[in-house]
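Subject: design request, 110 residues
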């Protein structure tokens, strides 16, 4: 989990404790599924590093995360996304993206 308080996708940006609890509850519900079940939900999917926004790619370089080809995105509601690194059977929380900026979509309502 990236906790750099100077970075915009950090977990400190969520000042509403109740909302943060809700995020973790939603992640807990997702965690009850198998990886295949998670991947069948179109709201949750891997994203190739090359497809991330320029700022996100720079942040991965700054964090020295160079051994991953992709990150995993969980769409929790509206623009709210949680990004994770994944390998084998483990997901590691990376970013809390409140405004869908890590991998911007130009589709309406995303």
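Subject: RE: design request

Done. Sequence follows.
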């Amino acid at each position: 989990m990236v906790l750099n308080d100077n970075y915009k996708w950090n977990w400190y940006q969520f000042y509403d404790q109740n909302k943060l609890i809700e995020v973790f509850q939603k992640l807990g519900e997702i965690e009850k599924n198998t990886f295949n079940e998670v991947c069948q939900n179109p709201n949750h999917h891997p994203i190739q590093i090359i497809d991330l926004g320029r700022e996100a790619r720079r942040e991965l370089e700054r964090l020295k995360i160079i051994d991953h080809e992709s990150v995993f995105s969980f769409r929790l509601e509206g623009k709210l996304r949680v990004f994770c690194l994944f390998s084998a059977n483990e997901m590691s929380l990376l970013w809390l993206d409140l405004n869908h900026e890590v991998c911007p979509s130009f589709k309406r309502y995303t």
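Residues 41 and 74 are 10 Å apart (CA to CA).
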